[in-house]
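Box S2. Input/output pair 1.
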Amino acid sequence: MASAVDDNSSGPALVGTGIFLQILTACLVAARITTRLSSGKPLQWHDRAILLAELLSLPQLIFVINATSYGFGSHQQVVSLPNRTAAQRSIFIAQVIWYFSTTLAKVSVVCLLLSLKRTSRAWIIFSYIAISILLCALIPITLTQFLACRPFSVYWDPAVRFQAVCWTRRAIAANVIAFSVIQALSDVVLSLIPLTFLLKLNLPLRERIVISILMGLGLLASATAIARTVIGVKPGPDMFRTDADITLLALIDLHVGIIAATLPTLKAFFEGCLVSIINWSREERTEEEVRATLCKLGLLDQGYDPKTIGIQVRETGKSSGG
């Protein structure tokens, strides 16, 4: 009789992280598109690419959530065979969608950088080569999903396991590693390329901080791609549970990429929000009302009064001096 398994499912963490990142990136992309259209400017290729990446990420998340409803994220010993089959089918579909969405996010970054340095012939050539590599890498990895095993339903249906004809494990791993290496290298390169021209500009400190954050996000995406590959190419005793960790890293990789691709385009949006807040606080509210609001938000202590504090400080100074 099999011993009981202490199941600590990673499903809730997977769903919670996925929903949070989905809402965050949806808001950022919506702000990006709204800002672009409200300014009277047409959508550029980088806008269209990131919008499509975000739209594709939604059905991907839906399939992931559906998989967790069948026990995805738990140890395979505690999940029935029909549930494992249903969960793995959903993850198979989500993975195919992920290939397209993460590629589009990176293409968006290249197109955005291309629009900033369109006068440089070398940069134009490099950008088109980078886009070509990203799109060409998408073709073999997608075909691998459907052609590596025939029928490809073997990925979720154990009933056809003995009838399936598959490529060698080395061939499949080579395709996966090649795609992951391209993804990781593109994250690193796209994170560091802005240094070639941004360091020459006399930017304010806050903009340098933002650039540093964006570079950090790119390197984080690269790290998740490497971790996902290392975990995926080493088969373990419980790949049903391990696949959930890989899926979580894939979600983080995708949404971090979308965030990094979107934040540079939202400078005008954030500045407009700040101006609106300042105007709102000055024109529509008195100083006392603004202070009361800040106290409610926990940004000021209750009973805060700068005039009273000033008097107390002066009196303290007099008493100590006297």
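Box S3. Input/output pair 2.
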Amino acid sequence: MFRPRFVPASNHAQLPQWKDTWTRVLPALTLWILSVILRYGYYGNCSMVLGPSSSRLMKASSVFVQQVQVRDENWKGALVYVFSEKPELSNKVNWNFSNYLIVGAYARKGYSLWLNKGSRIRIRWATQPSRLDKIELIIIKGEKKRETLLPEQTVPFGALFLNEPVTGKEADYNIEEDDKYSVGLINSNPRSIIVTFSLNVTSKVYDVTKASDMCSTLNGSCRLQLQFPLTQYVIVSTPDNGDIAGRYVELSFVARVVTYIAVL
């Protein structure tokens, strides 16, 4: 008796179907990967902490980036510059800040700044003599990989606060790398205290006299086109308006879509 046999389809017969499917999916997948890299990778959005008289440098390839957009949520007038050649970190700006800080029990309070290599910070803090030993100054470098800086020297001093004698300390720091720096005081006392806190900063900033274009966020977000196909340098800077808190600026790189289409 004849029994029919079922012969499995040849793998070779299925290959053209897989090739056709892969050919259709690959361009879309590649474009999606590139868009994700552009959105979240090297040329993604960058939320920056700056500070008075800050000057932060970034590098972008105009082959892949058509435009930079900068938005200052607080409308405090960040300035954006574009260069065809890397500018020099050759200028210095001095600024000061002084205030009373109320630091809660077992709490930390301070400020965040962007500082370039070669900058210097001098910090003074003072309070009642009986509580000074439980006040610690700390400077943390970086965001992802954090590192605590050590001062060059710490010097005690005496002063008057609300007509009462207080004692304080003074510390000097040299900045050896461009980065974000968080400056703050830690209170190990069991109650809140008032501390006189002052900063004296000598900030190294970039020379912007050779910028090819610039814009300001004083009246809202600003946009600058990047000249194709050169590598461009972008500097975001802030004026010294005495405001040390809340200097957050968002920078976005807008893709040059033609380049990514050509890649596909």
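Caption for Box S3: The chain has three helices and 17 strands. The domain at 97-205 is CATH 2.60.120.680 (Jelly Rolls).
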